[in-house]
Every structure is written in structure tokens, then in C-alpha cells.
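Mods, move this if it's the wrong board.
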Amino acid sequence: MKGRTTVSDIVSRRPRPAAVMGVVNVTPDSFSGDGLYLDEDAAVERGVNMFDAGAEIVDIGGESTRPYAEPVSEQEEMARVIGVVSRLAAFYPEKLSVDTMKPAVAAAALEAGAAIVNDVSGLRNADMRSVVAEHGASVIIMHMLGEPKTMQDSPRYDDVVAEIVDHLNERITVAEREGIDPRRIMVDPGIGFGKTVEHNVEILSRLGEFRSLGKPVVVGVSRKSFIGKMTDRPTDDRLGGSIAAAIVAAANGADLLRVHDVPETVQALRVAWRLSAQSSAR
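Not the wrong board. C-alpha cells:
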């Protein structure tokens, strides 16, 4: 386990633009409308297509974390994701992430070939911290205000960026103290997880402040509700807004972008960065 590639390795060996993480939702109730419930073959095919389109990592989740989502059982979540992880890991070792808050699911996914745990609860669970440390896994520590069922109930901050930076710094300290390799930690400010539109805009505009934590920064803006509120578009018609937000996030310091639309995002990032570099050279 000690020789496996770290998330930091993946993003540090890439020049800008940011690397892309594709999202595969093996759920019946994904907020983004792309759930592939009980269709393992389709989920595997989607993951393969994302890698072919330029994704550096594919993140597989079996439980919706949309606002007001109901949790699923440990057994159900495992049934949804482990087969997908195992099949993709045979072809893409060290490039799979499991999106889960459950330690047992994380452990099973890591044993099946995943290399990263994407924990939207920010490693609050001591057992999850133990699983990550014992497996020598990489981890994305995200900020979420409360739980999925309550996070959008009037979220409030005095200074949203400063408070999230402080929270993530505390979670990093705990993780490292409990044996998680500092090189294997990424941070995610948690766009849409207990934030208003104004909070999300503030976070994206001040994204560079998260680099003070000394960890790669991952950002997920794809198809989220704040884009719908800004554009009056339904979930399945937010591609333009998602790409625009991804470009801004990359320009402001994101290392890894978690997206549903991999080909379009990769293309947009490459063009934007080429044009930006050309303009800067003049």
C-alpha cells in the first residue's frame, strides 16, 4: 500500500489546467439526473468513457448527498458500488475514488481497488479515519454544514471562507495525527453543501485562500443548484453554467474539478488555458 500513487502526485505532475474527476452515480435519486441504479454495466461503461475523454480520476458513489436526501443502508450502498469499482480497477488502477461517508463501504471499495475516499462529511467518523490510514489511501476532506437532510436549512456564516478554512485545517490536523499520510490529503470547500448562492460565489472568488492549507484543492460545481438559481435552468440544462464555473474555479486555484460532463469540461479547460497562456505571453 505504501507505494501507491497519491492524489497529490496526480495533480502535481499535471501542468495547468486543473485535472478532472468524473462522477459516476450508481443511485436512483442523483440530484444531477444521471443515476445508473442497479445497472452495473452502464456504470462501468460510463467510467470507461470518462477516462477515454480525459478524466484523471473517476469517483463512484452509491448514496445521494443532494439536499434533503435520505440515507441508504450500508449493505445497499455496497451492492451498488463495489462491483463497479472492482471492474474499473482492473483497467485503471490507482485512479478510482469512492464517494461515501460509511467506513465499511470505504474499506470494501479500497479492497476492491479504489485508491481514494471522497468523504463529504469531512472525516468526522473516527472509524473512517482509521480505514483511510490503515489502507494507506488518499482522501478528500470536504466541508459540509450539518447533514444532507439539514444542510440547506438557512446556512449562515460570519465569513464563509475563513470559517471553512479553519474547519478544514482542524480536520487535516486530526487526520494527520491519526496516521493519514499528509501527501494523501486533499480539501474541498463543499460548494452547495450548506451554502447559499452568495456563499458559493464568495468561495469561488476567494478560492486561492484555501491554498494556505498546503493541500490540493478539489471543487465540485457541476450541475449544482446555485447555477440553476443564477440562470433559471433545470438540472439537465446547466452545462454552460457548469463549464463557466469550472473555468473560474480552475483560474482561481482549483487543482481537481469534480464534473459530470467530462468531454465538454476537458475541452473547455484546454482551450481556456491555451488562450490565457497566449494572452499572458504578450
